Amino acid sequence: MSEQIDSAIRWARSRIEACSDTARLDAELLLAHCLGKPRSYLYSRPEEHLSNACWQHYQQLVERRLEPTPIAYLLGTREFYSLQFNTRAQALVPRPETELLVEQALQLIAPQHPMRICDLGTGSGVIAITLKTERPLAQLYATDIDPACIDLARENALQHGVAIEWFESDWYRNLPEALRFELIVSNPPYIAANHPFLGQGDLPAEPRLALSPGDTGLEALQQIINGAHRHLVDRGYLVLEHGYDQQAAVAELLTANGFVDIRCEFDLNDLPRTSIAKRVENPDYAA
Fold it and tell me: Which tens digit of pLDDT belongs to each residue from 103-117?
């Protein structure tokens, strides 16, 4: 006879504790996924026996979790800004910290204005799609260097019923030269290549290109900031996510490139996470 729900969860939890601080939650999410039921089902029928097929599938998923494979990849979905998005291993798992970037961007987008917005390095498309969902009149454009990410982002956009123009592009490279935006947003890779953090938790299973841009961690941020003036309209805004220890360096890059009204917002852990700045053609008359 196969395992009961409660004993299966206990078994999985004891295994997953080796790689996750949320072992019980992971165990429950994986079993609910195998059953095709909500987590509440597990609590209402703890003594129900799993089918042999379900038990075998569950064991396989738990072993993959130990590799470690992020729970979002195993489930194939992740919630972001109260929306569900498909997730796959070619794109970074959406983080709660990035919701701060979305919140700051939304404050800059007038609901009744068809603002042109570009999301650089879109990954699974969560930023662009969320902005379009919240501000339907906005015109959204998004880039990513990886065609597999563009395919995933298109899939998510179709699921949410929003229209976005996608570009396979290394940051700005393949954007039309004449196209100008009133807002550019990005959550680029920003972890230094030799940082020990890259070897911790689930990060080894996520795409390295989406995590680290090079030796300093500032390479992608520098490219985006340096090129922004060619793609932003006068008084257009740039909103960037960055590392908690990169606030000063990002502000210095923004200042050197003529941006004004530079400010940084702190995430839920009270760490500096998102910088916002305005481009002006003549900084001496920015007021």
Answer: 999 999 999 989 999
